[in-house]
Amino acid sequence: MLAAANLPVIWNLSLYGSSSTFQLLNTKHQKAYALHCMRSDGHEEFENSQENLGLSSVTKEPKQKDIWNFFREAQQNILFINKQRLAAVEELEKLKKEKDELLERINQLEEETQIVIKKADKSSVLWELLLRIDSMVINGLIGIDEAYTMRKFVKEHQSNISVFPLDVLQQGDAEILAALRRFPNKTKWNGFHVIHICTEMAPLVSVGPLASYIRQLSCLLQGEGYLVEVILPKYSTLDMDEIEGLQEIEADAYSYYNGQLHANRIWNGVVSGIGVTLIQPVYYSSMFNRDEVYGYPDDFDRFAYFSRASLDYIAKSGKQPDVLHIHNWQTAIVGPLFWDVFVNQGLEGTRILLTCQEFDSKGLVPPEKLELCGLDSAALHRLDRLQDNTKPHVVNILKGGIVYSNKVIIMSEGRTLHRSIPGLESTLAIHKDKLFFAPFGMDNSMEKDLCCDVHVSAYTSIKNL
């Protein structure tokens, strides 16, 4: 018993039923028992670890597939973005090249047009100044005598006018007047001042050959040193885009018609380097607010109003042209009006030139119609004046233009008149010393030179009258 007490013991208590058994195990038995227990616990842990590993593998497998899908999609997106970037760079290079080509073309066009601009600058500035002087007179800023001096001053500086300060042209009339007075005197102008009173001018309004004739002749004469301007009705069908610097004179310009004074709106601008004035009736606004230029029962009334309004405007603005150039029957009434009404209104040095392009329409009207524009019908209804040669009860407006003009240019196919002109043969025979003949067209340089020479000869002969 004492020996047994010195041994390490483990009490093993097992319960079976109602009895108990006690076993005493030595160290060897203890080790074996512990090993058994460890193996038993390790087996369970191993099985648990195997089960956990299988579950993890099942869970991670779809995650790995998603990652690879995301990776492949990212690669595809990167490739697409790279392709888009390369395409954008290529397009940018293309646009840059096109831009450089466009800039180069713009520079070329600017260089090409610079010569034209330099040529146009003189006439544009010249006419801007002359038309602003008209505005000064109508608005009462300067008198007629001073206006005459200022116009002469501008004309004498024509070759040097392009150096006039352009910023001043954007200011008021007073500033322009002050700048003109300070402008240096360097060159002299020796040309004629010609005013066309007409019903057509290309490219503003064109019906027949008169339109291109006015434009080409004006440009030719201005190239020869003449100062040329044009007065037109302000038709509602005018191509206003062709007018440079269009502006309305802010003052009423009155003209006589049918026993009363009527207001007109006056517009100024430049067309092909030629100064253009447009007259727009206020009360009789419907006269030129129509679809067609000609062909109405009141054509005489319309163009008689315009002719009288043109002369009233010229007289009021203080213009003193060397020649009033009128055309066909539509403005032929200017001849009688000038000599009977306007010659003593500061226009003593002005002369009348009539151009006849066609004789089919002569403007046959009752004599009393002349009173609409202020003429004495009884004094003019005579055979040596406006009475028609074959129909004595009417007056012939074209005949009146021939009788009252200082010179007459017949547009013909040759140097002599090869066609008959019913009703006007005797009138032309009486006034044969007035006649000049010019080519009907100006389609080539020879015809242009001939036409220009004829008109220069006509103007020169008028100057010597």
From TrEMBL:
<comment type="pathway">
    <text>Glycan biosynthesis; starch biosynthesis.</text>
</comment>
<dbReference type="InterPro" id="IPR013534">
    <property type="entry name" value="Starch_synth_cat_dom"/>
</dbReference>
<feature type="coiled-coil region">
    <location>
        <begin position="78"/>
        <end position="119"/>
    </location>
</feature>
<dbReference type="GO" id="GO:0009011">
    <property type="term" value="F:alpha-1,4-glucan glucosyltransferase (ADP-glucose donor) activity"/>
</dbReference>
<keyword id="KW-0175">Coiled coil</keyword>
<keyword id="KW-0328">Glycosyltransferase</keyword>
<dbReference type="Pfam" id="PF08323">
    <property type="entry name" value="Glyco_transf_5"/>
</dbReference>
<dbReference type="GO" id="GO:0019252">
    <property type="term" value="P:starch biosynthetic process"/>
</dbReference>
<keyword id="KW-0808">Transferase</keyword>
<protein>
    <recommendedName>
        <fullName>starch synthase</fullName>
        <ecNumber>2.4.1.21</ecNumber>
    </recommendedName>
</protein>
<feature type="domain" description="Starch synthase catalytic">
    <location>
        <begin position="193"/>
        <end position="413"/>
    </location>
</feature>
<keyword id="KW-0750">Starch biosynthesis</keyword>
